[in-house]
Amino acid sequence: MTLQQQALHVIESLPDDQLSQVIQFAEYLAAKSKTAVKNGSENENGYIRQPGVFRRKMVMSEDFDETPECFKEYM
User: How far apart are CA 14 and CA 29, in angstroms?
Assistant: First the structure.
């Protein structure tokens, strides 16, 4: 039995008041999915990357752009 078939089987047994909640939640998930794909990019594993996740959580040192002493002889 597929996931869609399982979902339909469960949905068919719900009373109307709970069915309306399922519909609202499904619409919420669909809108959330569209927003996530619009704001990010999905990789081959289905993981959705969202820009800005690590914003203000990483700090670069002041001398980040400077060449380290050990590499200066190669330049």
Answer: 19
The answer to whether the CB of 37 falls within 8 A of the CB of 29 is no
Token pair for 42 = 């999905």
Give the global pTM.
0.41
Torsion angle of alpha carbons 33, 37, 42, 47, nearest 10°? -40
Q: Strands of the chain (E only): list them.
A: 41-42, 48-49
Closest by alpha carbon to 24, among 39, 14, 36? Answer: 14
Query: What residue ranges do the domains of the chain occupy?
Result: 3-74
- What average pLDDT does the structure give for the chain? 81
pLDDT tens digits, 26-61: 888 888 776 655 555 556 666 666 777 778 887 888
